[in-house]
């Protein structure tokens, strides 16, 4: 990527800043790939739990456990953590 192109793509005003931004974006992209992999792993583990619960005559969803998860994310990340936890729960068990 040329210096001008890097500046244009990053919105930076200097080549040095564009280099920092480009490197940081690469790290974010790698982190996002890891996060997606962890979410997919969480979904698979959740499916195992749901199957075991249903096969034992229980319900697919354990609301008290979901409240624990919501509280954990909220305490760690604040209000956006609650939204994130809700999205994770929906991905892992579907809408209820």
TrEMBL record:
Pfam families: CM_2. SMART domains: CM_2. PROSITE patterns: CHORISMATE_MUT_2. It comes from the Bacteria. InterPro entries: Chorismate_II_sf, Chorismate_mutase_highGC-bac, CM_dom_sf, CM_II_prokaryot. GO terms for biological process: chorismate metabolic process. Coiled coil: none annotated. GO terms for molecular function: chorismate mutase activity. Residues 15-96 form the Chorismate mutase domain. This is Chorismate mutase domain-containing protein.
């Amino acid at each position: 990527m040329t210096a001008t192109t890097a500046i244009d793509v990053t919105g930076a005003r200097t080549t040095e800043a564009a280099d920092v931004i480009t490197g940081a974006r690469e790290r974010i992209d790698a982190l996002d790939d890891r996060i997606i992999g962890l979410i997919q792993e969480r979904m698979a583990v959740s499916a195992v739990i749901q199957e075991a619960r249903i096969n034992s005559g229980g319900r697919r969803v354990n609301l008290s456990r979901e409240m624990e998860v919501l509280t954990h994310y909220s305490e760690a990340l604040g209000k956006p953590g609650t939204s994130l936890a809700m999205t994770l729960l929906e991905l892992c068990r579907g809408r209820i």
